[in-house]
Amino acid sequence: MDRRSFLKELVQSLTDTGKEIVYPLFENDIDKLERAADVLTGVSWMRLESIEPGYQEQICAGRIISLYLAADRLIACSKICPDCHETLQWIAYDRRLTCTACGRSYTFSDSEDSLRPNTFSVKKEEGSWWVALPDKGVPTDA
């Protein structure tokens, strides 16, 4: 092995070793930053029960949420109308949430709907789905 190859191999080895040493330190800091951001934004992450493709509802932290899973993309929203605060009804044959009080409706695939329920952030981690729900105080859908 010539000097140039030796030095190139040495630099690569030192770089890899440095990455292995430093990465766990940054990983812990990233977790801390994510938790701090959650505290500042006032959300808590709740684990959802098993999710099947299509529409379903679950109760998390005392509130009912609507879930729609299609092609490994999950949408979570409040089941309360943001305008009149009535419970939204799922119309299965039409695949839409409807407010019977104000007559507005929402489909999970169309962005031109007349109803805009409060949506929640979701993530898939460790093989489970998680939803970010607002913490204490007045809920956003009350």
From TrEMBL:
| Name the record gives this protein | Rieske (2Fe-2S) protein
